[in-house]
Amino acid sequence: MPKASSLLLANIGQLLTLRSASDGPRRGASLSDLGIVPDAAVLCVGGKIVSVGSTKDALRDPWLKKNRKKVPEIDCGGRVVLPGFVDSHTHPVFMQPRLVDFEQRISGASYEEIAEAGGGIRSSIDGVRNASKTALAKKISRALADLARHGTTTVEAKSGYGLNLESELKSLEAIRAAAREWPGTVVATFLGAHTVPPEYRGRSREYVDLVCEEMIPAVEKRKLAGFVDVFCDRGAISAEETAQIFGAAARYKLAVRAHVGQLSETRLGPLLEHHPASLDHMDYVNDADLPALAQTETIATFVPGANYFLGLSRYPDARRLIESGVAVALATDYNPGSSPTLSMPMAMSLACTQMKMSPAEAIAAATINGAWALRLADRKGSVEAGKDADLAVFEVSDYREIPYWFGANRCVLTIMNGVPSSHLAS
Ligand SMILES: [Zn+2]
User: Fold this and answer.
1) Are 351 and 363 in contact (CB under 8 A)?
2) What is the CA(203)–ligand 1 centre distance, in A?
3) Ligand 1: distance of its center to the CA of 250 in Å?
4) How far is the CA of 84 from the centre of ligand 1 (A)?
5) What contacts 78, CB < 8 A, 6 or more positions away?
6) pLDDT tens for each residue of 115-170
7) Does the pLDDT of residue 40 top 60, yes or no?
8) Range list of β-strands (E), 142-295
9) How far is the CA of 182 from the centre of ligand 1 (A)?
């Protein structure tokens, strides 16, 4: 992997710093505060941001004056620069796209009908169980490169298509192998409780015991994941089983998160007792749960790519959550069944057009609040001295163009932990 040296980004038209005067994730009105610096410069040394300010001030800096010749300079030509996106919800460990499901859904089958017919999540299981770790790592590496091309510098990556001890460990090891080759940052999550695998059909209790008593201890022993996730919904893992899995995670000092409210409503109180880092999807949420959720640092993560790809007319009610003071994030939910996209700008565009989030809110949700959702806000999600040098340069002159030009990739350069990788000739 290339090493980070020093780097000066100058002549930035709009620098979105996302710096914050207050502690904690962004909520309410503060979600719109991008901390914009016009005509800006950012100096990075050794993979960290060391100074942020106007181009004029940066060029007057005594250290920079002395070392100017040694510091490679990128002239941003008046473009927009922002913190690299933090994609806090992806499922990159799979072998094949699900094209039969895609066609069946187009001709009218529902998500659950496809699962009943043997498609859905279960159809990805064989692919992962039969694949080598190397083949999986190759697929993940390709996804990571594509994420970076779209401006993402930190990504959460879940297992969850192995669903037995061996294949879940293999999936997490593949994530680790791919992460080592990528200059960005990968956070691994164990999702053994994605669904009950076919061989445990009708015996979900036994499978949940296996997750708690064998898989979680094995994941912890090998230090393969920082989080345990559960797909808590109708037809998958029940709220009681989710609480049991969260309890097991806590015994092994692993943090937790959950998929909640994609297909049906689950009351959040019992889940919040386990301090999840995030609750993701949140299409169906009971109003009575919002005040308690707003009191926590648990992030509600929207993944509108799934609503789009499943052809749903209903999207999460972002305005209701934001106005209740809930801290919200955006993620791609990259996966072969319901959201085959690696583009955070696409997720942001959907948030704007379908969920009525403003472009500024969408950007904060895709950067600093994504960092909070991964408990990395001390290092990621904003452009401030001391943070990791994770930046994205977009071929636009106004940040609102990022969600505006939907379906096109305007990211021309991504810097990950100080390592630049340019994607498009400009
Ligand atoms: Zn998911």
Assistant:
1) no
2) 23
3) 21
4) 21
5) 11, 12, 13, 397
6) 777 777 778 999 999 999 999 999 999 999 999 999 999 999 999 999 999 999 99
7) yes
8) 152-158, 185-193, 227-232, 255-260, 278-281
9) 22
